[in-house]
């Protein structure tokens, strides 16, 4: 019997009208579906290229350059890497961005004062406080201290309230990245079954909120799917059953290989938000998602890779949020 | 063959430790389960009796009487009935309540001024604006005009944001009524499958939010269930399949007999939030829920009736919200 390798096609949206999933028959005659890989890296580049043009036009029209401030407290290396990536992306698209670094000795009261200064600074459009914050800082209080209209992370309680009421708002970048991928890759969600695995307030919850909401509402973010929210207390056999009944599975748990091939309906779309750093058998460090990619990609219709899936899209959507904030602030300025 | 009538037991929580569902065998030997009826009317009375004692103690300790103002605009008869019921319940528990009636000619700007006056009035603890509002009023703007700490309907965007972030908040009364019924009737939700049918922002959405959330969080409202949100675009066969896999089905659609016996897992709990006024074959007007009660009650383990289920509980939870608001306002007053 001839051994066939799964045939994975990397596509970006530029190719989406020509690319389709193929099936072929192995020597026993059973049809196999090869997943289309939803290339987040390529899509993120497309979105950043679009943004670059839009921002350039915006500035050419006489508006000030959109401006982002990233606050980072302490010396967590992963957080510093994330912030560097964001600053680089901002520069790539024409957003003026600066990191404001503080020692972990910074006290909450002083951080609140710094944020207040940025809130009042008319030059600044977007404020991002990199989480997690060290020690005993109250992250919720910090998130709520950022002016909602400059809150490019979408973590402020008013932005969360707006999202949950289907109102126009700033959406947390990772959640928006998932929705944008579904839209740009033209994954049908209307009346489809979607399962969201993970109920975090920054990722799982807002994704579930947009996925189940009405498309006709003001936010333009509704997807009209039937949505099931699974989490750590969902029994394994129910997780399997619910996922197998889903047209779309979105997972954001940080548990490697949680989602296996037997849990996926043939042809379903699998979006992997998980990112975990593991050491493989050869002693090499690598990033993996929640999905057993090698096996699931033989069953799924569409699948995001890790790395190169939702991760780069998150950074692109943060830039989208920053430009959106700049535009809204300018509109408000003109109105007053 | 002897014809057996379904044996329905009306229980309130006072009886919950002694009452159990019974099964019996019909003449063909097949087991039948008779649903326990979750008597919302009796439970609402218990809760109001508890509240009456608490409020009496509160006032005896020297605090002012909790005070509620219900604003009603226009002459919709159903709205006037609802408001009368709320005022009566308030009086029953020792809350000082008044209706403020306005003609439908009232303009939005004047309504905003009235609300602002109540926000500033230290005598007033709870403000309720009966919906729907007539004509071209912006209900979202009106809901957001009520001070969040006096918003006993839980419709203010900050209260919605707090709910969705598992923070202590004021929860919309109908949604809270459903959660309170599950708790008081000791329906197990941890790791269970729940289906919420209907995605309204005042009922379905907040119920789904509490049901899927973490029990350990500050709000104390999390239920740790796996939750599926179904709605008008969920295909009928998927609605049936998902409901049949659920331990708990909560429906809030206003579509009579949407939920039929073949959609319910034997022994499941069915909570019916729907209330529709229909005219029966004899020409009599009656209230019905979303559930085909006569048939479903032969299959379900627990079921709420309509009327007498969630409806009376909603009014009781509104009183709970009003007393909670009064207590929080007093705490804040002492702190300042």
TrEMBL record, chains A, B:
Any GO CC annotation of this UniProt entry: mitochondrion
GO MF entries: methenyltetrahydrofolate cyclohydrolase activity; methylenetetrahydrofolate dehydrogenase (NAD+) activity; methylenetetrahydrofolate dehydrogenase (NADP+) activity
Keyword tags: Hydrolase, Multifunctional enzyme, One-carbon metabolism, Oxidoreductase
HAMAP family, per database record: THF_DHG_CYH (MF_01576)
Residue ranges of domain Tetrahydrofolate dehydrogenase/cyclohydrolase catalytic in the record: 38-153
Known catalytic reactions: (6R)-5,10-methenyltetrahydrofolate + H2O = (6R)-10-formyltetrahydrofolate + H(+)
Alphabetical list of InterPro entries matching this protein: Aminoacid_DH-like_N_sf, NAD(P)-bd_dom_sf, THF_DH/CycHdrlase, THF_DH/CycHdrlase_cat_dom, THF_DH/CycHdrlase_CS, THF_DH/CycHdrlase_NAD-bd_dom
This protein's name: methenyltetrahydrofolate cyclohydrolase
Pfam families: THF_DHG_CYH (PF00763), THF_DHG_CYH_C (PF02882)
This protein's record includes keyword Oxidoreductase: yes
Keyword Oxidoreductase in record: yes
Species annotation: Leptidea sinapis
């Amino acid at each position: 019997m001839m051994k066939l390798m799964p045939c994975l096609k990397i596509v970006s949206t530029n190719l989406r009208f020509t690319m389709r999933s193929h099936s072929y028959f192995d020597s026993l005659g059973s049809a196999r579906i090869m997943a289309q890989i939803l290339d987040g890296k390529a899509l993120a580049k497309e979105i950043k290229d679009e943004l670059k043009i839009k921002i350039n036009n915006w500035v050419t029209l006489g508006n000030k350059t959109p401006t982002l401030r990233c606050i980072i407290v302490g010396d967590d290396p992963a957080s510093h890497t994330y912030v560097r990536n964001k600053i680089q992306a901002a520069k790539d698209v024409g957003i003026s961005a600066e990191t404001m670094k503080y020692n972990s000795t910074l006290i909450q009261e002083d951080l609140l004062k710094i944020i207040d200064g940025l809130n009042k600074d008319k030059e600044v459009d977007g404020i991002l406080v990199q989480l997690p914050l060290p020690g005993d800082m109250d992250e919720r209080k910090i998130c709520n201290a950022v002016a909602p209209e400059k809150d490019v992370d979408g973590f402020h309680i008013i932005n969360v309230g707006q999202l949950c009421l289907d109102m126009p708002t700033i959406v947390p970048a990772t959640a928006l990245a998932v929705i944008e991928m579904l839209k740009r890759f033209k994954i049908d969600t209307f009346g489809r079954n979607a399962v969201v695995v993970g109920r975090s307030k920054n990722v799982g919850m807002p994704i579930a909120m947009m996925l189940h909401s009405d498309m006709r509402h003001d936010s333009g973010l509704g997807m009209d799917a039937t949505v099931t929210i699974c989490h750590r207390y969902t029994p394994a056999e129910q997780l399997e059953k619910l996922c197998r009944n889903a047209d779309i599975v979105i997972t954001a748990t940080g548990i490697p290989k949680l989602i296996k091939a037997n849990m996926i309906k043939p042809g379903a779309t699998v979006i992997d938000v998980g990112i975990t750093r593991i050491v493989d058998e050869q002693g090499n460090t690598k990033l993996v998602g929640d999905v057993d990619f090698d096996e699931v990609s033989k069953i799924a219709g569409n699948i995001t890779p890790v790395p190169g899936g939702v991760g780069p899209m998150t950074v692109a959507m943060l830039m989208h949020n920053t430009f959106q904030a700049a535009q809204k602030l300018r509109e408000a300025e003109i109105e007053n």
